[in-house]
Amino acid sequence: MTLRRLLRLPFALLLSISLVFLSTSMGQAQAFDVDARAAILIDASTGQVLYEKNADQPYEPASLVKIMTLLLAMDAVKAGQVSLADPVRTSARAAAIGGSQVYLAEGETHTLEKMLKAIAIASANDASVAVAEYLSGTEAAFVQLMNEKAQSLGMSNSYFANAHGLPVDPGRRPSVASARDMALAARVLVNKHPEVLVWTSTVLETFRENPLFILYNTNGLVGKYDGLDGLKTGHTQAAGWCLVATAQRGNVRLISVVMGTASQAAREEQTRRLLDYGFNRFVPVLAGEGRVGTVKVRTAANEQVDVALAEPLWVHTPRGGSAVLRTEIVPVEGLAAPIAKGQHLGEMVVYLDDEPVVTAPVYAVDDVGRAGLLARAWRSVRDFFLSLLDRRSA
Questions:
Q1: Based on the domain organization, do 16 and 47 belong to the same domain?
Q2: Catalytic annotation, pick one of 23, 63, 128, 136
Q3: Could you give the strand order of the β-sheet that contains 17-22, starting from the edge strand earlier in sequence?
Q4: Using an 8 Å Cβ cutoff, are 264 and 254 in contact?
Q5: Domain that holds residue 367
Q6: Phi-psi group of 204: left, alpha or beta (phi > 0 → left; psi -120 to 50 → alpha; rest → beta)
Q7: Which of 312, 314, 306, 292 lies closest to 358 in space, CA to CA?
Q8: What share of the chain is helix, strand, coil (3-state, %, to 5)?
Q9: Which residues contact 239 (CB under 8 A, 6 or more apart)?
């Protein structure tokens, strides 16, 4: 055994596991297409992309922006800043907003929950402005929070001009968003605030008795597509007909986005096709659970620190052919002992046919103390010689 092999043998940085299983050929998967300006289909749990078309191209999103309105409102509720029972008063500006609405009158007051239901079910623009003003004082201040939230989530191809999605006045910068960004926002919303799905899956509900107003769900697939329970429609002349949908079957929840379709019927048909594609063409395969490998921490008493996933990680694989699944543990830079149990130590990256498809954090299984002085000194010497060998072989 050479010195190089002797020095390297106990000190692996990455875990690689190869699995072979039945799946469709990627060529067959690519033959599928959606008749929309832009589209994407993702797994809600992992974010794995199952299909995309022009997914990073920004387009006007119309009322899809209300996903961000709902997300910020529910974040505020979860943080204890507001309550769903809080009264929300309608301003003159909110009452006059126009478009899809519940015809709020100036001074009319409803609970925050009722206003959010009006947004989630009936896409009410007046309720969106009333909620924005309640949460931030002015709609402009709320919109600033929308854009800050979008940036923090990594929605790099989005800009929001208002809380409702109506066209802006001439000369103003319009709202834009990419299909990928809208899928990301929807994923955060349904995972962080799943109670919203109770509203978005409601077909109709009475908003007020006098004067009577019934909320009718703008999503025509609710109650008509197996497992579908949301999420948000949008339409303007510039945006075309848009729909962010989500459906769950068994343990699998998918999120689809279509933007710029030709009609209401078209956005529903293309959404149906997209979700069918995800549920029918892919099979979830367990990529890892529990302990999944080790991360090297040179200063730790046990240099190879065991790491685990917080929950089982499933990956969608094409059905019917052959493909290769491989995982790799990528450690956080600058790790040093002591290590605390549950500490985030890196990411497990899952590759399908050498393409990264899913990433999940891994955590320390146990507390690990610091290595002694002699052990740390030896490791420094060892790593020095390893680096020399690397340079000589390069």
A1: no
A2: 63
A3: 17-22, 322-331, 344-352, 355-364, 304-309, 291-296
A4: no
A5: 3-23+289-393
A6: beta
A7: 314
A8: 30, 30, 35
A9: 59, 60, 61, 62, 165, 259, 260
Q: Select which of 66, 114, 232, 296 is catalytic.
A: 66
* pLDDT for res 18: 30
Q: Pick the range with the lowest mean pLDDT from 36-50, 138-152, 289-303.
A: 289-303
- Asked if residue 21 has pLDDT above 70, the reply is no
Asked whether residue 115 is domain-assigned, the answer is yes
Task: Note whether residue 267 is domain-resident.
Answer: no
pLDDT the model gives residue 187? 98
Q: 101 with 234, same domain?
A: yes
pLDDT tens readout for residues 368-384: 988 767 666 666 767 66
On whether both 16 and 164 belong to a single domain, the answer is no
Q: What is the pLDDT of residues 229-281, one digit of tens each?
A: 999 999 999 999 999 999 999 999 999 999 999 999 999 999 999 999 999 99
Please indicate whether residue 66 is annotated as part of the active site. yes
In this structure, the answer to whether residues 380 and 354 fall within a common structural domain is yes
pLDDT of residue 26: 38
Other Cβ atoms closer than 10 A to 46: 19
Residue 103 lies in a domain: yes
Our count of domains for the chain comes to 2
Query: Which of these three, 261, 276, 303, is where a domain ends?
Result: 261
> CB neighbours of 213 closer than 8 A, spacing ≥ 6?
102, 103, 206, 207
- Tell me whether residue 392 is exposed, middle or buried, using C-beta atoms within 10 angstroms of its C-beta: 0 to 12, 13 to 18, 19 or more: exposed
**150 with 190, same domain?**
yes
Predicted confidence at residue 48, as pLDDT, reads: 96
Containing H/E element for 279?
helix 264-281
pLDDT in tens, 281-311: 999 999 999 999 999 888 888 889 999 999 9
Q: Which of 100, 123, 128, 256 is catalytic?
A: 123
Q: Which among 307, 291, 288 has a CA at the least distance from the CA of 345?
A: 307
CATH number at residue 361: 2.60.410.10
Active site residue 123: yes
Q: Is residue 256 part of a domain?
A: yes
Q: Tokens at residue 246, please?
A: 């989500």
